[in-house]
């Protein structure tokens, strides 16, 4: 994993813990976490690029942005939704599963940087198509299908 991916995963874990203990009962705290999430995502997108292994973490960032928007639009509605323990616990379970999926996928499917071939031979860099004019290809109905092509 790369540095910003680890930071994003740690932010997601911290966000889930703070979400569970009731840290987001004030509007300013919600704004700061949303600002941190967006800035980390943009920095990650610019410097390292997105990866499919990190899509669950991107969903958590989207979730935090939605929480910021709902908290800023009408904080009383946010308190009604956030005050329900069942909704909070279900969202925490879902977010924890997403964090685990992303961490496992990033660990199991790393990205490799392969070097370009440096030798004088072009092995693996050029592909050739050859048509054998000696052999005639017949399909399964024994109809003429053209010449055999080798790749």
Key features?
single chain, 151 residues, mainly alpha, two-stranded antiparallel sheet, 5 helices, elongated
Distance between the termini: 36 Å
What class would the helix/strand composition place it in?
Answer: mainly alpha
**Overall body shape:** elongated
> Largest beta sheet: what is the strand line-up?
1-2
Secondary structure topology:
Layout: H1 3-21, H2 27-47, H3 55-73, H4 75-83, H5 85-108, E1 130-138, E2 144-150
Antiparallel strand pairs: 1-2
What report would you give on this structure?
The chain is mainly alpha-helical and 151 residues long. 61% of the residues lie in helices and 11% in strands. It is built from five helices and two strands; from the N terminus they run H-H-H-H-H-E-E. The protein has helices at 3-21, 27-47, 55-73, 75-83, 85-108, and strands at 130-138, 144-150. Strands 1-2 form a two-stranded antiparallel ribbon. Strand 1 and strand 2 (144-150) form a beta hairpin.
What is the structure about, briefly put?
The protein has 5 helices and 2 strands; from the N terminus they run αααααββ. It has helices spanning 3-21, 27-47, 55-73, 75-83, 85-108; strands at 130-138, 144-150.
């Amino acid at each position: 994993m790369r540095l910003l991916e680890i930071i994003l995963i740690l932010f997601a874990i911290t966000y889930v813990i703070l979400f569970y203990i009731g840290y987001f009962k004030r509007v300013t705290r919600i704004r700061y976490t949303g600002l941190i999430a967006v800035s980390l995502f943009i920095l990650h997108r610019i410097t390292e690029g997105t990866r499919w292994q990190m899509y669950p973490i991107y969903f958590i960032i989207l979730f935090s942005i939605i929480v910021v928007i709902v908290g800023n639009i009408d904080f009383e509605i946010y308190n009604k939704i956030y005050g329900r323990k069942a909704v909070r616990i279900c969202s925490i379970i879902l977010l924890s599963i997403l964090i685990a999926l992303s961490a496992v996928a990033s660990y199991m499917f790393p990205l490799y940087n392969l070097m370009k071939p440096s030798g004088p031979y072009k092995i693996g860099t050029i592909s050739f198509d050859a048509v054998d004019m000696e052999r005639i290809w017949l399909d399964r109905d024994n109809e003429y299908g053209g010449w055999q092509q080798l790749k």
